[in-house]
């Protein structure tokens, strides 16, 4: 059933779903051993709703934490002050890489993304007065608390997370 489209040269797609009251087309036309989407999906276990929903991190709160992390990165604040927000590995890494005295950062825009219920990824821009740099962080909800697991200031010549 092909009908004319109001736009010349374009034809609408043929209907691909069975009409109301009809059964799905039989899979008799499939070659021997051919998998269907139903076969693949039947092997995936159904995901169950996992307990309580995770509390949200507000953008204002993330902005304050990222600004404090930039102060640690610049050597203007001890990493210990952010102990509740950092994983032990990240806190150790930030302590080791902290500068003696670096530029003062001004955090501007902060954008968030939630790729999973227990993960918030953050990116933003920080201004040193001479340059505008990108800042990224990843927060994961573990044992009832949000903790930063990754923090990076993308500076010229930098090669990895800080």
From TrEMBL:
Pfam families: DUF6459 (PF20060). Residues 1-33 are annotated as: Disordered. This is 3-hydroxyacyl-CoA dehydrogenase. It comes from Prauserella flavalba.
